[in-house]
Design brief:
disordered C terminus, 6 helices, membrane, microtubule binding, olfactory receptor binding, transmembrane helix, mainly alpha
């Protein structure tokens, strides 16, 4: 793993940097061919690892292949590029470009479609949560007694007696004891 990382990726990346910095076209083209072959190798490796990992010396062969690609003596990446990749891509370039344009258009349309749906779902969820949350909060607050509210607030020395509760209905605004006292004085006065 580390040898492939160092020799297959970091070493070529550094020399690609040097080629770009020096503006040497020959070196630049050499490293571009390497990166194209290495990208194809990495893609193929994803599938071959699944099926060929049991093969004896499979990983050693992969390391040897990367060394062959890099070697200035074998010029493996240049050979593969010129013999196979360039002719194949040149003959299929129009179809590949058309396919990429269609995929780009479809992905953009899908992104816009799902983006709109996602925003609609999020807006609906926010409105529903706000409306339900507001109603639930007011119902919850109505159910508290003054004792409960003073306990939540943390006042241990509350001025409100524990038997007095907050009533929200206008029918219950007058205590029962007051009514019975006024009814009692009203009936005795007759």
């Amino acid at each position: 793993f580390f040898s492939r990382l160092i020799f297959g990726t970091l070493y070529p990346a550094y020399y690609s940097y040097k080629a770009v910095k020096s503006k040497d076209i020959k070196e630049y083209v050499k490293w571009m061919m390497y990166w194209i072959i290495f990208a194809l190798f990495t893609t193929a490796e994803t599938f071959t690892d699944i099926f060929l990992c049991w093969f004896p010396f499979y990983y050693e062969l992969k390391i040897a292949f990367v060394a062959w690609l890099l070697s200035p003596y074998t010029k493996g990446s240049s050979l593969l590029y010129r013999k196979f990749v360039h002719p194949t891509l040149s003959s299929k370039e129009k179809e590949i470009d058309d396919c990429l344009v269609q995929a780009k258009d479809r992905s953009y349309d899908a992104l816009v479609h799902f983006g709109k749906r996602g925003l609609n779902v999020a807006a609906t969820a926010a409105v529903m949560a706000a409306s339900k949350g507001q109603g639930a909060l007011s119902e919850r607050l109505r159910s508290f007694s003054m004792q409960d509210l003073s306990t939540i607030r943390g006042d241990s020395s509350s001025t409100v007696p524990p038997s007095v509760t907050v009533r929200t209905s206008s029918k219950q605004s007058q205590p029962k004891t007051s009514r019975s006292a006024s009814e009692g004085t009203g009936s005795s006065g007759k």
